[in-house]
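[job 4417] fold queue: 2 targets
>>> target A
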Amino acid sequence: MPTDNAAFIGSIPENYDRYLGPVLFAPYAADLVERVGVPDGASVLELACGTGIVTRRLRDRLSPSVKIVATDLNDAMFNYASQKFSPGEIEWQQADAGELPFPDESFDAVVCQFGLMFFPDKDRAVREAYRVLKPGGSFHFNVWDAIELNDFPQIAHREITKFFDHDPPTFYEVPFSFYDRETITALLTGAGFRNVEIATVTVDGAASSVADLTQGLIHGNPVVGAIRERDAALLPEIEAAVATAVSESCGDPPQGRLQAVVCAAVK
């Protein structure tokens, strides 16, 4: 039976960064990093750094004296991100968010953009973030709100699943599955965090063209692997269907609503 557990491998990181980065991730990276305040000489840990979109924002905004350690479990994404920086700008380390290779109380802030939804053991990951934070340190992260509140992914998921009567690709269900505010609050307070703040942030997503956005929505995440496992010959038809649906709903160049849940807590 096909699986939807394919990694962000091959050309996916490049397509993710080029076609989805400016549309879905850059606006929220700017928002998230603006919320991170640390003194000169502090240390910041980024979890699930992906292609380095938040990493770049952190490095550009924070003092050069702030040490930034960027981590990810996925080799392909991690390697792609590291190539975008000069030697010494960032400390890179492959790491599992559920088992961080850092001593207790090592960091003044932990940051994670759109990663928590993918962690298999969210409670463990949150407790690890708590463990490596210094007393008074802050944890900042965001997660996507419901897919119905995010136009571009909703269209892609709807159109892709139409092609499969049985066992449709389910990748898009994962990043849009963890947004309940009470659940998030309970997860944080259960790990020991205090001063939990949760905000809903809506932005107007804008892509350069329907063609570019379609490329990202299909080839910029593991859904493309799930489609190929089921029937690779359908890819051109699926691309055409997604492009048509995006154009009809959002125009060309497309504009659409995006919504995320942004969270902060203190140790």
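>>> target B
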Amino acid sequence: MPPRTPHRLPAEPPPNVMEALRKRLPGRDLPAFGTVFALRSAAQQVDNAVTGWMADSAGTPARFQILGMLWASGAGGVPHKEIVQALQVTRATVSGLMAALERDGLVKSAEDRHDRRNLIATLTARGRAIFERAIDTNIVSLRAAFATLSADDVETLTSLLQRLRQGFVAVRDNPSGQR
């Protein structure tokens, strides 16, 4: 199977569109519009890069997240419903991911002793080794990607992205903008 061609979003609208927008959008609206384009493009590049890194280690970012949760839990394991909540996906999605991880010998799931309706996932020795190798392999790429940013830059960027995310959530939850 040939490698997947990564998605490429433009960092900004075409020049003729930008010129028309300059005439139409007042004040802060044009820079905000441009920022959304730049952010979407950057997010797509990050997603493409991380997906590529994970392909050679944990498989996918979602699998890495699940393995990480199980790795951090130690021997205690994690209920499937907590994985659903953490990944913010459906139970069916987690069921599919868990079935594949179990098939690959990376995790095991068993009924909860206290409530047989719940499944508890634990990491196998092979899963632990894969996850730890994924950390070691991917940290090199992550360091290179962040090499041009200082620790303060990273902190500022993280804070700004969190605030921006909250703004988009607020608009989603209240599209009319009325308080």
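[job 4417] complete. Note on B: The chain has a mean pLDDT of 89.
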